[in-house]
Amino acid sequence: MSASERKVKSINRSLLIVVLLLAIALIWIGVRIAFPDSPTLFAGTRPDNLGVSSGKLAPCPSTPNCVSSQSADIEHYIEPLTYQSSATDAIAKLKNLIETQQRAKLIAETGNYLYAEFMTRWMGFVDDVEFYANEEAKKIEVRSASRLGESDLGVNRQRIESIRNLFNQSSDE
């Protein structure tokens, strides 16, 4: 085989790989559009350490893809939500707000606790988001953590801040 034939064969192989990768990407996008709520390879497994224990939500892992109002370190800390009504009313308002969010699924609910999963649109990564209303302090402790990966590019913090803004707006009305 001549050098020019090897070069053509190498180019054809590279072109075939690019076409295959493009086809896979288009199929993936088509599936995500057709079935936006379906689980993906990137959904991960639901943690078994969530919930409230002795007035505390689960601590954040050492990775930067989590925020919590109960965290002691600045990297993971975020302010809790505050409310003036009863804990039950605040949680009910928060539940209504979460139910309006795209790709959010309410998993557990009690009188003073909510747990929801939020899925990213294209890749289907899942974040676990918890809210615990502390009636005494009139605040809602929050925790939002990615199941997979190292960094979330600030998505968990942005989500909680967005929820805070919507929660506070609905309080003003």
Task: Specify the biggest β-sheet.
Answer: 6 strands, antiparallel
Instruction: Provide the CATH top-level class of the largest domain.
Output: Alpha Beta
H/E series: HEEHEEEEH
Strand content: 15-25%
The CATH homologous superfamily name of the largest domain equals Kinase associated domain 1, KA1
Mean pLDDT: 87
Structural class: alpha+beta
- What are the segments in which pLDDT stays under 50 over at least 5 consecutive residues? none
Helix content: 25-40%
Q: From the alpha-carbon coordinates, what is the Rg to the nearest angstrom?
A: 22 Å
CATH architecture name of the largest domain = 2-Layer Sandwich
The count of DSSP E runs of length 2 or more, i.e. the number of strands, is: 6
Number of helical stretches of at least 4 residues: 3
Our measurement of the CA-to-CA distance between the termini, rounded to an integer number of angstroms, reads 78 Å
